[in-house]
Amino acid sequence: MFGRLGAPEIILILVVIILLFGAKKLPDMARSLGKSARILKSEAKAMKEDGNASAQAPASDEQPPAQRTIQAAPGDVTSSRPVNEPTDTTQR
């Protein structure tokens, strides 16, 4: 079904998208999609690091984790937020 999409069909689809959403809103939508992807990537990386750190850390030498800040984009401090992690490991 989708194997026969050529250049004219793709151009027609792009024109319809531009007409539906407006040319002024498309860059903002793409920018917000990029920010969302960066946030998702950083959250996934943080979860992977937490999983590796908890598997390697000895149980008798536990220290409270330091406050981390995840930024949406490099240098974008307006959208950064602190990460709230539970202090009690038995509630996980």
Give an account of the 3D structure:
By secondary structure, the chain is mainly α. The protein has helices at 7-21, 25-56; strands at residues 69-70, 81-82. It has a two-stranded antiparallel ribbon. It is elongated, with a radius of gyration of 21 Å. The model has no long low-confidence stretch (mean pLDDT 76).
Name the descriptors.
92 residues; mainly alpha; two-stranded antiparallel sheet; 51% helix; elongated
User: How many H/I helical runs?
Assistant: 2
Helix content: 40-55%
* Global structural class: mainly alpha
Approximate shape: elongated
What is the CA-based Rg, rounded? 21 Å
Strand content: under 5%
Largest sheet: 2 strands, antiparallel
Strand order of the largest sheet: 1-2
**SSE succession:** HHEE
* First-last Cα distance: 46 Å
* Counted beta strands: 2
Q: Report mean pLDDT, rounded to a whole number.
A: 76
Low-confidence parts lasting 5 or more residues at pLDDT below 50?
A: none
